[in-house]
Specification:
Elements lengths: L1 H24 L11 H28 L3 H8 L47 H10 L1 E7 L5 H12 L4 E3 L4 H8 L8 E5 L13 H7 L6 E8 H6 L9 H9 L5 E3 L6 H10 L4 H7 L5 H5 L2 H9 L4 H18 L6 E2 H7 L17 H8 L10 E3 L4 E4 L1 H9 L11 H10 L5 H10 L3 H13 L5 H10 L4 H14 L2 H13 L3 H14 L2 H10 L6 H13 L3 H14 L2 H13 L3 H8 L6 H13 L3 H13 L3 H14 L2 H13 L3 H13 L3 H14 L2 H13 L3 H10 L5 H14 L1
Parallel strand pairs: 1-4, 1-5, 2-3, 3-4
Antiparallel strand pairs: 6-8, 7-8
InterPro entries: TPR-like_helical_dom_sf
Protein name: Sel1 repeat family protein
Keywords: Membrane, Transmembrane, Transmembrane helix
Length: 735
């Protein structure tokens, strides 16, 4: 329809113009005299048509523009670097605005005098990941060049795509859940940990933003110290963040190393001709990108000095660094730093009245080092953020802070500064720092503010302080109310603290009352402590107590963690108790050896558990171990176990193993096993395999087995009348 409208409007402009051209060339001069009335009318009409065509085009373009009121309501206050009320294009946002660090001697406010980009070895992998879509995460040490590599890659691949730089995690969620559809968009998440907060970025939001058929790509960076925190047992307290990190495929995890490789150095030598900073960076022992970001020089400014201004500035930097170490992700106000800094002054200076004004100390700490980054990065709203590089050094214990813990006063001020929605992040930091009482306060405040899942975090915090009876109470109450997130975290708290007897007791209670989720939560939490014996005992308990609905849950969990020998023991125990479903659940995620499978089948025969045998045969077929199915079926054929034989033949034909099925059917004819022959005929009728009927009839006729021949011919009715006489003649000759 739109194409038709444009065609009509185009023709309205084009036809009069063509007529004028024809007249100008004199091709129709015999029809229209120069200056005649016809010519004048046509000229007037052409001008009118042109004006109307332009007007229509303008109206059409106005219609295609997005509604600014809608976009303003979504992006304003939630996204950075907006172009009026719309998202900017990738190419229109400067590198510094994307949080690429200033290099030494960078004077331009937009970073146009940054050193030339030195290609990295992982650029090709990075481009492939961005082109594929989804979440691409660059990780490495602070000042290794992660943000620069990512920014250059999206500029190369998607310069004309929209760029979404959310203010924080909740802002990103509000945008994603709005009515505005994001297409051809790069979502930029520098320092990913800032967005991994409650109601922020998680696996569900990633799937919503960057579905497989989406044109949205999420590009993020994270320091190795932060990434490691989400991969440890302690990091599992922020389960949503840990799940997101574990969901990133290896191809989308791009490491940027501190030191250049040989190939990267060759590229840098090419670039040094146009920029002497590159030449100096190549020779720097601390690393190429680290030198350009003035990392070592920033650390020296923080560490070395002997004047009142130095000690004041050093204390302000230390306070800001500790705010980030504590898990406070926002920039800090000058008022808060003024409240904190005295805890970081050396003892002779703590009570000195002659210290310079706070404003002077902040100006000193925020002054660029060598024209590059500054220890405290000032924001336009008057707040300050400690440099990533200095936070890394503090976390590694190579800073003026040494191994000193975060002071009580810092925790208190940050608790007061944190909003109810963000106080959980502070609790995560307190938990990782071993300040469990602070973590409990943070999590309880979030719970009291309406975050029901935060009660599970309370359970983890108080469990670390040995208050296990309270953890059990939280678990039991959450299980009764159906709060799955709290149930799981309370179980995790017991597991992290080695309270496996409590877990087993609670698991028995959950199994007895049929609380499948509580049971599953506890069963899964045996794994981190490698309590395989407890998991085995729990599985046996569900079988012995005839807890049919619970058996499958526990067996499935056990199949992912127990050894093959333990799983064989469990499967035999389930066979003795006639739990066919439990056997399949036990074997689901394992791969027993042929000898173990044979032992299991023999155990099933001894226990006369036909349901269990069917389950094992179905599992073998699912694993495509058809040779074992065929061999066992042959044994059953000669043993006269026709019921088991029928199950094996059914498994083969259901999985399209026609060759093995025909072999067994012919063996049945050879030994005149009429029951098996009837079963073969029934399966063939069900599958409408006329060709195999013909093959088996010929085989029966060839060996002179009249009884088998009649069973097969009767099974297919009159469809073989034309060949029946010939087959019987063959059978008579064979006889």
């Amino acid at each position: 329809m739109r194409a038709g409208r444009w065609a009509r409007r185009g023709s309205a402009v084009l036809i009069p113009v063509v007529v004028l051209v024809v007249l100008q060339l004199g091709w129709l001069s015999w029809l229209v005299a120069d200056g005649g009335p016809v010519r004048k009318v046509l000229e007037a009409l052409s001008w009118i048509a042109a004006i109307l065509g332009v007007g229509f085009s303008f109206v059409e373009l106005r219609k295609q523009r997005p509604n600014p009121a809608v976009e303003r309501s979504v992006y304003m206050g939630r996204a950075l670097h907006l172009d009026g009320d719309r998202l900017p294009k990738v190419a229109d946002v400067s590198l510094l605005a994307l949080r690429v660090k200033r290099a030494v001697d960078t004077l331009d406010a937009e970073g146009r005098d940054l050193p030339p980009y030195v290609p990295r070895d992982r650029d090709e992998d990075l481009e492939w990941a961005i082109a594929t879509g989804g979440l691409v995460l660059l990780h490495g040490r602070a000042a290794a060049g992660k943000s620069r590599a990512a920014a250059e890659a999206v500029r190369r691949l998607r310069p004309h795509h929209d760029l979404l730089v959310p203010v924080d995690g909740p802002a990103l969620r509000r945008i994603a859940e709005s009515s505005v559809a994001l297409t051809d968009t790069v979502v930029w998440l520098d320092d990913l940990e800032r967005f991994l907060v409650p109601d922020g970025f998680d696996v569900g939001l990633l799937q919503q933003l960057a579905a497989p058929d989406s044109s949205v790509c999420v590009v993020a960076t994270i320091r190795d110290n932060e990434l490691a925190a989400y991969r440890t047992a302690d990091g599992a307290i922020n389960q949503a963040a840990a799940d997101l990190i574990s969901a990133i495929p290896p191809s989308h995890l791009i490491v940027i190393k501190q030191h250049l490789t040989t190939t990267e150095q060759e590229g840098a030598r090419t670039a040094q001709a146009s920029d002497p900073r590159v030449r100096r960076a190549l020779a720097a022992p601390e690393g190429f990108a680290e030198y350009l970001a003035a990392g070592t020089s920033m650390l020296e400014r923080w560490s070395i000095g002997d004047s009142p201004l130095f000690y004041l500035g050093q204390a302000l930097i230390s306070a800001a660094v500790d705010c980030r170490r504590a898990g406070y992700t926002d920039a800090v106000t000058s008022t808060a730093l003024a409240e904190l800094y005295r805890d970081y002054l050396p003892s002779p200076w703590g009570d000195r009245p002659d210290l310079p004004p706070i404003a002077d100390g902040l100006a000193w700490a925020a002054r660029p080092v060598l024209g590059a980054s500054s220890c405290l990065q000032p924001r336009t709203d008057g707040t300050f953020l400690a440099s990533d590089y200095l936070v890394d050094r503090a976390q590694e214990g190579t800073s003026p802070l040494g191994d000193a813990p975060i002071p009580d006063g810092t925790w208190e001020v940050l608790f007061r500064l944190s909003a109810d929605q963000s106080v959980v992040s502070l609790g995560f930091g307190a938990y990782r720092a071993g300040r469990f009482e602070v973590a409990e306060r943070c999590f309880r405040r979030a719970f009291e503010a309406g975050d029901q899942t935060a009660l599970g975090l309370v359970a983890i915090a108080i469990g670390s302080m040995g208050r296990f009876s309270e953890v059990r109470a939280i678990f039991e109450n959450a299980a009764r109310s159906g709060n799955k997130a709290v149930t799981l975290r309370a179980a995790l708290s017991l597991s992290l603290n080695g309270r496996f007897e409590d877990m087993l007791d609670l698991a028995h209670q959950a199994a007895d009352i049929g609380d499948g989720y509580a049971l599953l939560a506890l069963a899964n939490c045996f794994a981190p402590g490698k309590r395989w014996g407890d998991l085995f005992d729990l599985a046996v308990y569900t079988v012995d107590h005839d807890l049919k609905e619970m058996v499958t849950l526990v067996m499935t969990t056990a199949s992912r963690h127990l050894s093959e020998n333990d799983l064989l023991r469990l499967a035999c125990h389930a066979l003795d108790s006639h739990y066919g479903d439990a056997i399949v659940s036990t074997l689901l995620s394992t791969d027993l050896s042929p000898a173990q499978t044979s032992a299991l089948l023999q155990h099933a025969l001894r226990s006369t558990n036909t349901e269990g045998i069917d389950a094992v045969l179905a599992w073998l077929a699912h694993r495509q171990r058809f040779a074992e199915v065929t061999a066992f079926a042959g044994t059953m054929l000669h043993a006269g176990e026709n019921g088991i034989l029928r199950s094996a033949m059914a498994a083969l034909i259901e999985h399209g193993r026609i060759g093995e099925f025909v072999t067994l059917s012919k063996e049945s004819i050879d030994v005149s096993n009429t029951d098996a022959i009837h079963a073969s005929a029934a399966y063939l009728n069900l599958k409408n395999r006329q060709d195999i009927f013909d093959e088996l009839i010929q085989h029966a006729a060839g060996i002179g087995n009249v009884e088998s021949l009649e069973i097969l011919e009767n099974s297919v009715g009159g469809r073989h009348d034309s060949t029946r006489t010939a087959s019987h003649d063959d059978a008579d000759e064979g006889a």
